[in-house]
Structure formats: C-alpha cells, structure tokens
Predict the 3D structure of the following.
Amino acid sequence: MNKSAKIFVAGHRGMVGSAIVRRLQQAGYTHVVTRSRKELDLLDQKAVHAFMAEQKPDYIFIAAAKVGGIQANNVYRAEFLYQNLVIEANLINAAHEAGVQRLMFLGSSCIYPKLAPQPLKEDYLLTGPLEPTNEPYAIAKIAGIKLCEAYNHQYGRQYISVMPTNLYGLNDNYDLNASHVLPALIRKAHEAKQRGDTELVVWGSGTPMREFLYADDLADACVYLMEQGYDGPLVNIGTGTDVTIKELAETVVKVLGFKGQLAFDASKPDGTPRKLMDVSRLASLGWTAKTRLPEGIALAYQDFLAKLG
Ligand code: GDP
C-alpha cells in the first residue's frame, strides 16, 4: 500500500475499526477516509453506492457490523442477520461497481461449525452445523466471505476475508446485556471492587474455552496482510492459545485487584464449548500476536476508566 493511498475504513467508531485507523495512522498512511453513521448509513444501498462512486477508495477495510455477545446475538436474531447481510452486501457490491480492486472483509471465528475439531482450521468452513446462539451472525458473515470469493472468481477482484478470534481492547462495548465476556468481566470486577462485594457472578459453568486477541494486534495483522498484498483464501487471526472462562475471570479479577470469590450462574448459556483458532496460515505469512492477556486487560481497563470520566 502506498502511504498516500486512499483507504476507507468502514466502522471506524467500533473497537476494530478504530484500531485499524490507529494502526494506519501510526504507519504513516495519510489518506484514511471514515464516515460516521450519521454521514453514511451503511444500511442504505443508494447512499453507499453514491459514496463509493464519489470516493473510489484504493483500499477498503470492512470493520462495520452489528456485533454483540452471546445474549445479544441470541435475542436480536433478526437484526443480526438482516443488518449484517445488508451492510456487507452494500459495501462489497458498491466497491466492485466503483472499481475498487482491494478490500478486506472482517468476519469472526463463529463462522466455523459448533463441533468442528480444534484448533479451527480455515478449511472447516461449511463442514457442519453452527452454534445456535450466534447462527444468524455467522450465516451473514459466511455470506460475506462467499460474496468476496464470488467477486474474485468472476471479476478478478482481490477481496480477502479474515476471521478474528474473540477480541477485546479500546472502545469495547461494556453494556452487560450486549457485551462479550471479557469487557463484561472487566466491568463486573470494577463495580464489584467499588461496592466492596464479596462475590462476582460469571455466566455459565466457567468451563468453555475461548481465545482472546487484543484489537490493536488484530489491526496490525490486517494492515500487515494488506501491505503484503495477500490475496489468497480466508485467514484466521488469533493468538493460537486459549483459556477457560474461569481462568479468564481469575486473570481479570487479579489485574483489577478484586479480592472476592467467583460464582457461576448456570442459568446462563455456555455457548460453544471451545473456540480456538488454528493460526498456522497466518504464521506462515509471517505474523504473530504480541500482546499478552494480562497486559491487554490492563490496557483495556485503563480505557474503560478513562471513558467513565
Ligand atoms: P461467545 O464467545 O460467542 O460465546 O460470546 P461471549 O463472549 O458473550 O461468551 C463467552 C463465554 O463467556 C460464554 O460461555 C458465556 O456464558 C461466558 N460468560 C461468563 N460471564 C459472562 C458475562 O458476564 N458476559 C458474557 N457475555 N459472557 C459471559
């Protein structure tokens, strides 16, 4: 990527999009284009086409999506399927029509079958049924991957898809009903400490295993792949190691200094038993994650505190 290339980051207000913008700016890219939801509604097909025809970016990162944790995905099933399908279809099709040659589409590890062998290899896509709690989101993301592949196959575009593992970092969502486990635990541990509680409630059994990647590491990998001119198949982005939810909760309370006990609420769903990415394709391309979990949690917590004001 030329340092003066025009790069559109869709979803720049979110955790992933904001990390990509930060990474691009750090690396000296001078022409990063962003639009707030007010300026450009990505659900509005006409508006997206008009924007793309006018801007004709050289590169696009699609980090815009309706996202949420296990509860939000499970409850707002219609919105998760509909909005994600429309956002990606509008952006990818409009990019193609405007002659954009290179684009990166960000998905999620939940596109893989619920009972796929672990660690999850890219080849396991569409080999079995999905985890029901986030099936709508996963179906939308799979459609996005296939849309990219179809434009590449039919029109010679270089639209690549990357599948990040569970993410956390700056600008995360700390709303307990919509958030993922890590930000939820940061908030719960903070509030429990403030109130002097003796107990912190963790959803589910604590036994599911998850892998966590710091969002700035993800952004680094995304920019790296674009800079390398990678235009091969789907790539997983993760750390390659996972922890149980119980171990995660223990790490969070240690970093935040909450001294009470953990309690497990079995009335909440566990979701998929394990979700660990096979990152050998990414490693063979020369990239590995740098930020360790306790260090990343401390950085995210600082950001959480700063936003509390
Ligand atoms: P998932 O990775 O798609 O299943 O989504 P989440 O990050 O929301 O949940 C991961 C796991 O953490 C599930 O087993 C949840 O039950 C568990 N978990 C434990 N405590 C919490 C919490 O406070 N919030 C959320 N969202 N998940 C929690």
User: Anything to note?
Assistant: The chain has a mean pLDDT of 96.
